[in-house]
Amino acid sequence: xxxxxxxxxxxxxxxxxxxxxxxxxxxxxxxxxxxxxxxxxxxxxxxxxxxxxxxxxxxxxxxxxxxxxxxxxxxxxxxxxxxxxxxxxxxxxxxxxxxxxxxxxxxxxxxxxxxxxxxxxxxxxxxxxxxxxxxxxxxxxxxxxxxxxxxxxxxxxxxxxxxxxxxxxxxxxxxxxxxxxxxxxxxxxxxxxxxxxxxxxxxxxxxxxxxxxxxxxxxxxxx
Length: 223
Ligand SMILES: Nc1nc(=O)[nH]c2c1ncn2[C@H]1C[C@H](O)[C@@H](COP(=O)(O)OP(=O)(O)O)O1
What we know:
Elements: E1 3-7, E2 12-16, E3 19-28, E4 32-40, E5 46-54, E6 65-73, E7 80-88, E8 93-97, E9 100-102, H1 109-121, E10 126-130, E11 134-135, E12 144-153, E13 173-178, H2 182-192, E14 195-197, H3 199-213
Parallel strand pairs: 6-12, 8-14
Antiparallel strand pairs: 1-2, 3-4, 4-5, 6-7, 6-9, 7-8, 7-13, 10-12, 11-12
Bound molecules: ligand LXVLRK3C.
């Protein structure tokens, strides 16, 4: 990688654009692999990093999966966010998450989100928006996701008694949480049960409180 000559206040300084030199396989399973990543840091030093990758990522894409923020709108009900609760083996406990899943070969993020929402929750929705590709745990892995926003018309016949389409070994409980009390309801669940909440969910909850109750306040923490 090209080295760049940068002028500081006093002396010129040699800096290097950080970059990956090589990736060596350390271990591989069916779903994930571990690699040793050799890279050059911003000071020009060569270092290594232990990197986890999914084996399932398609060659034509830079995104592994989708997360789904699905808003259920029904007459005479508060708008609810459709959440899922499931036992997650890596954590050894139940989690509260947005519905999510891996993108199949040739599938768009939007199509994957509509499919996963139907499978995991039974709801049929309409796309309302999609984020850029976002990273999930960059100090550990190259895993990426796109968050897809979906509106569900809960008054439609097919959404009145939604039926999940779960695969073998999938056990997903659907949890509906009112949007205007989202953080409070999440906190109630955490107090009541031994459950971990996904970071994306809790950040969303904090954002909703900000938007609903203090839209003109800066989000600073008081001592
Ligand atoms: N890391 C994984 N280990 C496994 O043993 N199995 C895994 C891993 N990641 C995914 N899967 C399996 C489990 C499901 O049968 C399929 C599809 O999962 P998907 O619903 O797309 O995604 P999640 O909601 O994140 O489980 O993959």
